[in-house]
Structure formats: structure tokens, C-alpha cells
Specification:
Radius of gyration: 22 Å
Shape: globular
Structural class: alpha+beta
Number of helices: 9
Number of strands: 10
Helix content: 25-40%
Oligomer: single chain
Low-confidence stretches: 1-5, 7-15, 131-136, 268-301, 306-328, 332-355
Order of helices and strands: HEEEEEEEHHEEHEHHHHH
Mean pLDDT: 74
Length: 355
């Protein structure tokens, strides 16, 4: 039995809390109300520590925010109207309110801010639910290798646009169960659909277990388009307005408006019974999965279209020709040369296809 604070501290030092997320953000001071850039470290012991000059195992935090289920959050235009610095755009701002204090922060990018709020919310939920299953631990080297693999996948030509709104550039978010890459704005809409539809994660801020990385390797935007957008007109103008984009994404993944009957049936037949125990539910929605908050649940349905029949597109052009740019709100109008998947062609019939 531990009877002294010294003994308790010794146990904590022997088994330090796992780090979930780290990065720089700017925080408003409590007394002087000035803004200071700090390095934040989120740990699974429900603590968010911040440091002045980065972090090392021997660093002493300048302060610690305790994460608890009563904490409330706000982002962007919903934040309090305080004297925000001119260097902070509205989309990068967020606030964390505890029973004793409200913390005002902003990051360098909107996706970084959204990533922090997402991770802190998840940790607060776990604090309210002690039976929440933890992720499987891997070594720091293995975790870094998996994270780097996701970043490389995001840089592939086919994944350098948002799967929903077609915003160009390396995408900082992905839905690991659907296997597609997203911009931060569409990722927020995905999260509003519920975890039974899409499990969106930050590529830069979140941890990536092997199961999630493997799902992205099997899929990607090219394979996803052959399923989710099978009957979407080639000249379809993708909405950019928030309301219209909400509607489009709901039609795409909830109503499955552009999924053709043959693809819907092929995926439904391929889903193992233990993944979706309710046969009737599987027939009406083959993508229904666990409602658990835990991304690593074993019974979560993961979309895998790579082994199903997808009609081969037209022959590829000369690989020396440059890929056309993607116009705002549109998919590429011409064939885009996509590097073959790391999976062998024998196991992935789509690996060498063009789209």
C-alpha cells in the first residue's frame, strides 16, 4: 500500500503516461492577458502540459491543464470575442473551458487547431468512460514508421486532393475506415456524420495504428471513387458552400446516392458476418459498423473495395505526359497517371489502373 507522496511519485516516474499529441500553439496568459507561444504535450493521464522552449524528458511544464468530462469547447466564430491578435485567423482559434478557467489558444493552421480539439475531446470522453479500451502500444520507432507511411500515402498523386470537395494539395486528414483523404473542412463534416459512418483522423497530429494504415494502403481516393462515385456525372461541379457541401457528403456516404447496385451488392457479399452481425442491416447499409468511440475496436467495419470487380478504365496515356491540374470543385477531366500501389498487382487488381 502506498502511504507517502514520495512513493506515489516514484511509481508515476517509473511508468510515465503515454504521449498522445504534441505541438506548438499560442496561449493567452491568465493575468497579463498577453499571448505566448508554447509547446503543448497531451498525455493519456488526462493532462495537457505546456512548456516554454519545447519539450524533453527532463523539461518542467509551465502549467498543466487537467482534461475532464465537464470541459467545454469552442472553435472559430464560436469563440469568445476577446482581444485576439491580428496574427490569428478566426479558423485557427479555439477555447477550452474548465470549471475554474477558460483557456484561449490558436495554432498556425485550421487543421492543427481542429486536431487538438478532436484529441482533447476524445480524451475527455475516455475520462468519463474508464472502461474505454486503450490503443495497442507500439514502440516509438514503429509508431514513427507508421506515421511516415501515412504521410507518403497522402503525397501520392491520387490522394493530393480532397476526396469530397477536390481541394488540391497534400491532404492533412483521412477517413481510415473508408480509406480516403480529406481536407480539414470536409473531415469536420465526416465527424458530424458519426463514427459508424466515417472515422476521420488528422494525418499530422493523430497516432496511426497498423490497422488504420493498412486500410489507407488498400484504398485511397482512386479506389474509393470507383465505389462512392460510380454514377457521379463526370462534369459534376463539387459544392464549395458549407451548406451544400454538408448535403453532398451526407448524400454520398449516408444515402450512398452514387453507389451503383452492382458495387453495393459486391461489397455486401464480401463483409464477414462478425463485422456486421445484423444481416438485414448489412443489406441496407454495408458500411454500418460499431458505434464505439474507440477507433481500435475489432468489430469496426472497414471498407475494402480493392478486391472487388471494378471495370478497368480507358488505357493510360503516355506516362511521360504531365498530369493535368485539378480545377476548383472538380475531379481531373483527363486521365491522371498514378503510381502503382506498394501492394503486388497480383493481390490488388487496381494497382496499375488509371482513373
Amino acid at each position: 500500500v502506498l502511504t507517502t507522496e514520495k512513493q506515489i511519485k516514484a511509481v508515476k516516474m517509473a511508468a510515465p503516461a503515454a504521449i498522445l499529441c504534441t505541438g506548438w500553439a499560442t496561449k493567452r496568459g491568465a493575468l497579463k492577458k498577453n499571448w505566448k507561444r508554447r509547446y503543448f504535450v497531451l498525455r493519456n493521464d488526462l493532462s495537457l502540459s505546456y512548456y516554454k522552449d519545447g519539450w524533453s524528458p527532463n523539461s518542467k511544464p509551465q502549467g498543466v491543464i487537467t482534461i475532464d468530462p465537464t470541459m467545454t469547447f469552442a472553435m472559430g466564430a464560436n469563440c469568445a470575442e476577446i482581444d485576439w491578435p491580428a496574427s490569428s485567423s478566426e479558423t485557427t482559434r479555439f477555447q477550452l473551458a474548465t470549471p475554474t478557467r477558460t483557456y484561449y489558444l490558436f495554432c498556425d493552421t485550421p487543421e492543427a487547431s481542429m486536431g487538438w480539439v478532436t484529441k482533447i475531446k476524445q480524451l475527455a470522453t475516455q475520462g468519463a468512460n474508464p472502461t474505454h479500451k486503450p490503443s495497442i502500444d507500439v514502440s516509438p520507432q514503429e509508431a514513427e514508421a507508421l506515421h511516415n507511411k501515412v504521410k507518403l500515402l497522402a503525397r501520392q498523386e491520387e490522394n493530393q486532393y480532397c476526396f469530397d470537395c477536390a481541394t488540391r494539395g497534400v491532404q492533412p486528414w483521412a477517413s481510415w475506415n473508408l480509406g480516403v483523404f480529406l481536407c480539414w473542412r470536409c473531415a469536420g463534416i465526416h465527424r458530424s456524420l458519426g463514427l459508424h459512418v466515417s472515422k476521420a483522423k488528422s494525418i499530422t497530429l493523430d497516432t496511426w495504428p497498423a490497422e488504420h494504415v493498412a486500410s489507407l494502403e488498400r484504398q485511397g481516393n482512386r479506389v474509393g471513387a470507383a465505389y462512392w462515385e460510380a454514377s457521379l456525372p463526370a462534369d459534376f461541379e463539387r459544392p464549395q458552400d458549407k451548406t451544400e457541401l454538408d448535403r453532398f457528403i451526407a448524400q454520398k456516404y449516408v444515402a450512398r446516392k452514387w453507389v451503383t447496385a452492382d458495387r453495393r451488392a459486391s461489397v455486401a457479399r464480401a463483409v464477414p458476418a462478425h463485422d456486421v452481425p445484423d444481416d438485414a442491416r448489412r443489406e441496407t447499409n454495408p458500411f454500418a459498423g460499431s458505434d464505439s468511440e474507440d477507433d481500435s475496436d475489432g468489430d469496426t467495419f472497414v471498407a475494402d473495395f480493392s478486391s472487388h470487380h471494378i471495370a478497368a478504365p480507358a488505357p493510360a496515356p503516355d506516362s511521360s505526359s504531365a498530369a493535368p491540374a485539378v480545377a476548383a470543385g472538380r475531379r481531373p477531366t483527363g486521365p491522371v497517371v498514378v503510381a502503382a500501389s506498394t501492394r503486388a498487382a497480383a493481390t490488388d487488381p487496381m494497382a496499375s489502373h488509371q482513373w
